[in-house]
Protein: ANTAR domain-containing protein
Organism: Mycobacterium gallinarum
Amino acid sequence: MTEVRNHDLARRMAELARAAASPRSVGEVLSDVTETAKELIPGVDTAGVLLVGKNGKYESLAGTSDLPHTLDDLQMTFGEGPCVQAAMDDLIVRTDDFRSEERWPKYSPAVVELGVLSGLSVKLYTADRTAGALNMFSFEANSFDGEDETIATVLAAHAAAAILASRQGEQLQSALTTRDRIGQAKGIIMERYDIDDVAAFEMLRRLSQDSNVRLTDIAQRVIETRGGNDNRGAE
């Protein structure tokens, strides 16, 4: 049985890796991960991903049903639960029976009322501003074992790679936008005052320093003033 499950895991991870290589959104990758968790771990009745920001904001993603989102909302309302604990602290959090679970006195009875009896949460990653966990739940008690934890950990690593790659892409795009904005502002100043690019950048830097405003915001103001001058000239 273990050999068959290992073969299935290897096959599905290869499929996930090929899918991730093509242009796809993070949401699509995470949905593949949660669906794969249901496929490879027999006890999983529903699964999802929870991202928790340092500012208390959170995202409930890739649920295989609406239930994971409801469970995430409960955890953030109560300030406790296995998904939050896995995201922020522990690597793996397993609950064999929520009816006797004492770690989360508010959350546990609430999920039992929803029919959830056991759960498995695995940390995705912990970054400076965001933490995350892959979460699986069952309507039966004692649904997860050590082998399930291993499979979930592999899937969580794949999900983490997709999320972090997306974050890096967003940071790169932001950096490119900032660079282009400053370059455009420099060009405007060079043309307006007949100076070279070094002097134009130094003017932007001094304006930023003297007004205590970010350089990219100063650049945006310069761009907007050109638009305003062009509009007035047209009139």
